Amino acid sequence: MLAVSLPLRYYFFTARYAYCxxxxxYSVVIIPIIWWLIDSYTTEPIAEVPSYxxxxxxxxxxxxxxxxxxxxxxxxxxxxxxxxxxxILKITLAKNRVMExxxxxxxxxxxxxxxxxxxFCTFIFxxxxxxxxxxxxxxxxxxxxxxxNLNAMVNxxxxxxxxxxIRVGIKALVTCKFKVPWETVLYNINTNRVHPGLSxxxx
Length: 203
Hints:
By secondary structure, the protein is an all-alpha fold. Helix content is 71%, strand content 0%.
């Protein structure tokens, strides 16, 4: 939302901005995890859900429904937030017509469209199956449990297809050639930079 509401300032944010967002995300996740770990070791475990991720005890019956609803609500909120992102983008572009031909605008628009595709896949492959699983609408829910794992798998292919920088990074990771590809990406980014309000040809 910051990227589309403050398009001219967004590119000048420092690394501290990214660190703060990542720290907030981890804090939101770590707080309930700490509570679950403490509760799992202080409560007599009942094997409703098997233990995993090296946790010594199972989820107790009161924890697992909370865990499932927490994931569902958080994921649904991330999809719903895409609507104000689109609205803010339209309002911002209406006020800044001069941006429409800039390279930064094209990158911003591409990232926004990619977010929309990712949100749609999240809705289809996670939110819908999760609702069906929680409400137990069918006797056999195996296919819906499998669909819950598709979201993360589909997302990586979406971003690889939409962003050249990620494709180069994945290729560098697979081939263990880190320096040359990343220098190529940085060169392409630097040579495509333009001042806000100027077209690539005038820079």
